[in-house]
Amino acid sequence: MANSGLHRIHSSLRLGRTDAAGVLYFASAFDLAHETIESYLDSCGCGLKTLLKSGPYLPIVHAESDFKAPLRTGDEFSMTIETVDCSAHSIAFALRLASIDDRTIATFNIVHACIDHVSGKAIEIPAALRIAITRAK
């Protein structure tokens, strides 16, 4: 695969993630993107299990995708986090879903706000979290 990105998962498309035509269902594509982000956070030492217990919370506040080609039942694929960008109060992930031959299937932009787990108010991204998730940049 041409671009190594920051983090990648590999799998094959299961029937339960497809529509009636056996093509990746759009909501399932977002599930795959979210699973890739969760895997990345785990690899950075700040997994969701820890964040949900002690904060901060990172709710999704923006999600968009562009689909370029179909992915069919049984097709192998990779989902790659291409970039992670932090602003004061949010974390933006750019992801790419690709076929096994590196053809782009879809691209995703997902933004998470940083919320205090006690007050529910927006907060600045804690320095330790910022360092952990941007270390690979």
Concise structural overview:
With 137 residues, the protein is of the alpha+beta class. It has three helices and five strands, in the order βααββββα.
How would you summarize the topology of this molecule?
Blueprint (H helix, E strand, L loop, with lengths): L6 E6 L13 H18 L4 H7 L5 E8 L8 E11 L3 E10 L4 E10 L13 H8 L3
Antiparallel strand pairs: 1-3, 2-5, 3-4, 4-5
What is the averaged pLDDT score? 93
**Major sheet: arrangement of strands:** 1-3-4-5-2
The structure class reads alpha+beta
Looking at the structure, the CATH topology is Thiol Ester Dehydrase, Chain A
What would CATH call the class?
Answer: Alpha Beta
Sheet with the most strands? 5 strands, antiparallel
Rounded to the nearest angstrom, the distance between the terminal CA atoms is 19 Å
SS strand fraction: 25-35%
As residue ranges, the low-confidence spans are none
CATH superfamily: Hotdog Thioesterase
Got a strand count?
5
CATH architecture: Roll
- Silhouette: elongated
Number of domains: 1
Radius of gyration: 16 Å
Order of helices and strands: EHHEEEEH
Question: What percent of residues adopt helix (DSSP H or I)?
Answer: 10-25%
Number of helical segments with 4 or more residues = 3
What would you say this structure looks like, in words?
This protein has about 140 residues and is an alpha+beta fold. The protein has one domain (about 5-135): Thiol Ester Dehydrase, Chain A (Roll). About 25% of the residues lie in helices and about 35% in strands. The protein has a 5-stranded antiparallel beta sheet. The longest helix has 18 residues, at about 25-45. The radius of gyration is 16 Å and the shape is elongated. It starts with 6 loop residues before the first strand and ends with a helix. The model has no long low-confidence stretch (mean pLDDT about 95).
